């Protein structure tokens, strides 16, 4: 049999991508399906000395499309090729619906029973031979994560057959599936392992809520513990012992006051280089992203990755559902918020999981201002923390209150109701070390690739603007708002301007301004409130559209003006 | 007797009889394994008209209060 093209087809979240990377190895191309924004991945494998294209088709429940991604999946299947139907073995009944649809279309199909290793833990026994007889096509148990069964899958590709079952209705399919499953699958009672007892405890409200509080508190404690120690025992010493001596030599070489010295080293503070305040490209420009922010990004994503892979987040979503309804959202919207605490860009992208325009708008507006990102949090902890932990707490309390009030108001004002949650709660599983590390590495390298250039650009920009006196011009222009309304010195405009680019540098710029504690608190809060950074803004436009983004922006500006003024009047420090 | 999912006790098992909802809701539930003639077990329900969790085919699903109210279940009492 001559195979031209292989399509991986299956429901969402059945481990298609893991199988795909097992099959193809490293060489993959991500592209858009013509005329759509739906992405798909293709690669190549060698079959009998011939290169065959493999396509990872977007996950779909049905071949009668109900959304864009499903539409693309259907069109790809129609274009022909051999189909590897990836089926979640722990969820046979639901997955077979798509399998039957494939079989009714006379497409050559082989079934991969993926997540096979999981069936044992969950008391599911599947008779593969019987399932093969029932379906009439080859069935191979696989485990994408470990690679088990992939070889057999490849070997049996030539046995693939095109069935053409008579076309049946949905109800007929379910009935048929019921029979197949009864024949081929046995469920035994699950053993109550420790993890399962924990599963039960963490979803029941009486025990679940205290557990959630403990998990959140514990997570933040660990993030801070790891972040702080990385900074004081590794990153700061590295900068001071290894980098500083080089910079001192360079500073002497360039001579203080020269243009290049100004750009690269920045200002000497009392005759010395100060990583926090000098504001040169090689001093503060590297110190802020690498020694102040990166350690926190690392520890945050490490803990987040562990919680994700453990399977905790959907439970948190269920526990938070009630509370989130008051803000016009359902519990699952907690996921974009949690991601947004790392970086708002993936946070805003995750808003896609919400279905209606109203919830998307509310979630995006709340997320864009009110949820500080880790770069911002790290800088606030670093800078404001020097004046006392209570002031850091105050800033986060204010931001949290604003988030709640804004949600309550938006929920009242906007027409419509918040839709209901409907999620699958995965079983707990011990996270795989390599999977967690891979994800962590992807997120860290993403931060370095995207944030580092922007931070450097921001520092460069500020230095140029200072040299050209443009900052002074704007400082005078915005002085009424800054000084009269918020009680900040007019020089703080430079921080607000840079805040468009990167929030971490912007917070850092408050450092050299010799602010009072009250001013520092207001300044940091305003930087979190007045506007999201440029990167966030561009994904906001993509996700919400121009009109809703402008509406959202108006709300942000109004809130910032109001809250800044209120803090200035009522805050007594 | 036939009751809705809200009225089930935690730990109680029953057979789904009817899903009184729009096409969209029925299809979504169906694709997650909740449909007539299926055996489901209630796992927990949250305070103040909060979400309800059930287990079907060894899989746990959480759904909103309003949705759960429209799922009718036959239980032995």
Observed structural traits:
heterodimer; A: 573 residues; alpha/beta; two-stranded antiparallel ribbon; 11 strands; 10% strand; B: 77 residues; alpha+beta; 6 strands; 18% helix
Cα-based radius of gyration of chain A, to the nearest Å: 28 Å
Our measurement of the CA-to-CA distance between the termini of chain A, rounded to an integer number of angstroms, reads 80 Å
Provide the succession of SSEs of chain B: EEHEEEHE
Mean pLDDT of chain B: 86
Q: Summarize the main sheet of chain A.
A: 8 strands, mixed
Helix content of chain A: 55-70%
Shape category of chain A: elongated
Q: Which percent band covers the strand fraction of chain A?
A: 5-15%
Set down the secondary structure blueprint:
The complex is a heterodimer of chains A (573) and B (77).
Chain A: E1 5-10, H1 16-24, E2 28-32, E3 39-47, E4 50-56, H2 68-78, E5 82-88, H3 92-103, E6 108-114, H4 116-121, E7 124-126, H5 128-135, E8 139-141, H6 150-155, E9 161-162, H7 170-184, E10 185-187, H8 194-203, H9 205-254, H10 259-264, H11 284-310, H12 313-326, H13 334-342, H14 344-349, H15 357-368, H16 374-384, H17 389-413, E11 422-425, H18 433-467, H19 470-485, H20 493-498, H21 503-510, H22 517-529, H23 534-544, H24 546-570
Parallel strand pairs in A: 1-4, 1-5, 5-6, 6-8
Antiparallel strand pairs in A: 2-3, 3-4, 6-9, 7-10
Helix pairs in contact in A: 3-7, 5-7, 9-11, 11-16, 11-18, 15-23, 15-24, 16-21, 17-22, 21-22, 22-24, 23-24
Chain B: E1 2-4, E2 13-19, H1 23-31, E3 39-45, E4 52-56, E5 59-63, H2 65-69, E6 71-74
